[in-house]
Amino acid sequence: MAGEEHYVQLKEWAYLGNYEFFTGKLKLLAANELPAEKWSYSGKDDFGILKSYLNFTFEKLCQERESADDDAKQQLVYMDEEVACFNTGLYDKTWQPIYFYCVKNPREGFQPWVFKSFYNSYTIRYTNIAPMAIANLRRANYFVEPSALIFDINLDIVPQWDHILYDEENFMRIPEQLRANGREFCQNVIAGAISSVKKRIEANYKTIVPQMYKGKIQLLAPLYLTNPEKPDMALVLSKSEDKTVYYGHTCLTIEMAYNNARLIARPDSYWLQP
């Protein structure tokens, strides 16, 4: 895309500095600007969730930019001869948007931009980008079809058992005490949990959490396999093309599910916490 038409990963578009520099910027952002939220995986302090969020947001904006007209392109990822900027979709503690600001890289043959810092809608006035350009920057749009966010309780869930049980990586996500009893036993327990979670969804629509995968909205449903108070995994659901059934494609660990969901927005659900 620096070449304009093809979106790339954030680190290919902008030089982010060394690990200490960029992680330090993320730490300052999380500590001083953003509302309190856990941005690192358990046992780590590398802001891995925040990094994933920024990468995904940039790629989504670039995808939208490719199909936008010339005027709208600059409202998605702004670039002129000197500076570049995009709206991260995050807000600070006073609900001002947070922007990712870059300057032109003077070194040829490297990333076209150099990341400088994060700014809100007030502090960015001290940079070299026009106020009108900032005012026009849009957030990434994930919800073209809001109805896709709502689980239809009248539809059945058809799990992809071959993938859940016989793909080794997926099978290992099932709690060890269940795996020890064999795949057929695991299938029966998971089937029971799927039946149970539909009742939870019917009682509380916030049980379902959206995630984005390959440009499409999917839904995450908790599976309580060993403890009725704490889910062990999340089942990934998508509606069939004819909208008559949900397919349960795979199961994710809770950490994986949170990371995927946080790419869109902070999950507002009682069961999905980092």
Mean pLDDT: 90
* End-to-end Cα distance: 33 Å
Structural class: alpha+beta
Largest sheet: 5 strands, mixed
Main sheet strand line-up? 1-5-4-3-2
| Total count of domains | 2
| Rough outline | elongated
Order of helices and strands: HEHHHEEEEHEHHHHEEEEH
- What amount of the residues lies in strands? 15-25%
| Number of alpha- plus pi-helical segments | 10
Low-confidence stretches: 1-5
Count the beta strands.
10
Radius of gyration: 21 Å
Q: Give the fraction of residues assigned to helices.
A: 25-40%
Describe the structure.
This protein has helices at 10-13, 19-33, 48-67, 70-76, 131-136, 161-166, 168-171, 176-179, 183-203, 254-262; strands at 14-15, 78-79, 83-91, 97-104, 113-120, 156-159, 209-213, 216-223, 233-239, 245-252. The chain folds into 2 domains: 10-136, no CATH class; 146-262. It starts with 9 loop residues before the first helix and ends in a 12-residue tail after the last helix. Helix content is 35%, strand content 22%. It has 274 residues and is of the alpha+beta class. Helix 3 (48-67) packs antiparallel against helix 4 (70-76).
